[in-house]
Structure prediction request, 620 residues.
Amino acid sequence: MGIRDKLLDFKRRLQDRKMYSIVIVLLGAVAGWGIYQYRHAADLRQELDNQYNRAFYEMVGYVHNVETLLAKSMVSTTTDRTAITLQEAWRQAGLAQTNLGQLPVSQPVLASTSKFLTQVSDLSLSLDNQNIKGKELSDEQYDMVEKLYKYSVSLNESLRALQDDLNAGRLRWGELASKGTKLFSKTKPGEMIKKVEALSETFKDYPTLIYDGPFSDHMTSAEAKGLTGDEITIEQAKEKVKEFFGKDKVEEITDTGKNDNGPIKTYNFDVKLKNASKDQSVHISITQKGGHVNWMLNTRNVTEEKLDMDKAKAAGIKFLKEKGYENMEDTYYLKNDNVATINYAYRQDDVTMYPDLIKLKVALDNGEIVGMEAKSYLSNHTKREIPEPKITVDEARKKINKNMEVYYSGKAFIPTDYKKELFCYEFKGKLNGTDFIVYINAVTGEEEDILVIVNTPNGVLTM
Amino acid sequence: MKSRKAAAVILVIAFVCVCSLIGPDPLFKPGGSFAQGSSISDEQLLARAINGEARGEPYEGQVAVGAVILNRVRDPNFPNTIAGVIYQPGAFTAVNDGQINVPIDPNSTVVKAARDALNGWDPTNGCVYYWNPATATSSWIWSRKIVVKIGKHNFGV
Prediction:
């Protein structure tokens, strides 16, 4: 029977009354289902739109507050008053940034606004810390605040224009959020994006800001101090890889390309080891300067745990010595899937250098090193001038809670979020059954940091 | 004749079912539901993001995706928390299409990859973008500088 005949047959059967009613009922059911789905989708769209609006209006409020607070901080003359104002600016800018991240606008459009808010928040906190200690703003810092204030004024203006459009119903967030809403769109596509893009116009000539905070602009360009030695060729790097694993163990080395990003430039390789299982892969990254190992990963599946932690730690120390890293001391560790990830810090004289960190993954079946990460060591390691402490260990001890039972004291350099190192006394102790590490600045006597030690079955964590 | 009618009815019902599957609010969610605890730790969230974005990639590529997410947390242009970065609207396709909720295969290496990324392993050397050249829909992404290629993904800044 051809298609034509089939259609004719179908037409004939449609004339049958019973069939007629069945078709009508079915059509009704499908239409009902369609209406339900449509309304449901409209509800969801509305709900989403409300969330976007909430995020937007909250952000407008916070940005407005930031503007006011920055203005106030420029006027106030006492350090404690400025500290309070900046603290509030830090909080408000952070909240504004959180809400900004929830808007359905692609990241590149909002990047500069996001950076501005992050840096206002970060800078405020950094200046706040300084003000709490009674130090006034320097002229440069004052300039920075003034610049940020000007940007906050123009950001506010752009936001207000956008807010007016939203209030008047000329724009809806949902039209940006998903591709499927074109059908319901009341505005021309692209219009919303244009309006939002106007926000980033504000930051065309945004200056580079350098201050003591993790989001300061100098963070990405910091030079790697531990990268000693000369530039090497890719062939020399391959030799280094062979040396690292042992010449007799390497079967094949595949070049996977250079990585020229950031201060530590590398050659990357895939390595095939002899006796490796099928799904095992080994990757290694060798620095172009000096041929140091930046990181290494070996995905061997470790199925048993035969070594205890002491043996694992010792295996790591032995490995580091063989590779030329002397005076490394294990600090804390984590254990997962029969592999221990152990942190080793460099020790110069009797001072622990926490910025110079190498992480090793030790397989607990045979003590093999299945991972290494030396970025912190390569970034920070150098021979340091250890200053003469201005206070004695006993004086430092008096600065911490009397009730804490101190069972270890020593000296250490600790890293900060902004690549500055602090020379501190380190105290480990117990208070009310919880272990703490307290750092007292050996030069200024200030309490710099407190860490809580969490002992889990999988290892020692600091928080 | 009767059996034909029955067949027609079944066909229509099947059609409705198929429509509901591809409709805006699926009645039957593919992939099953993901068990959500009240507090999902960073490690689990990161593992799920890697699972959604790169479960078919080599191990190095999985760590790299985790590292990109963590690099974004430290970058002022992006939100400052792991959840903020992962759930930023439009940032990751796996979040848009719900792939992030696909349960993690017990034999999968994504949890290990998440852990290594959190411990500081970064095969990308600080990249904050990646894209699959075969499926990337945004032409803007090609304006990024390619730093390294791992598996199917280009990583860039």
About this structure: Chain B touches chain A through 48 residues (CB under 8 Å). Confidence is low (pLDDT under 50) at residues 16-40 of chain B. The two ends of chain B are 67 Å apart (CA to CA).
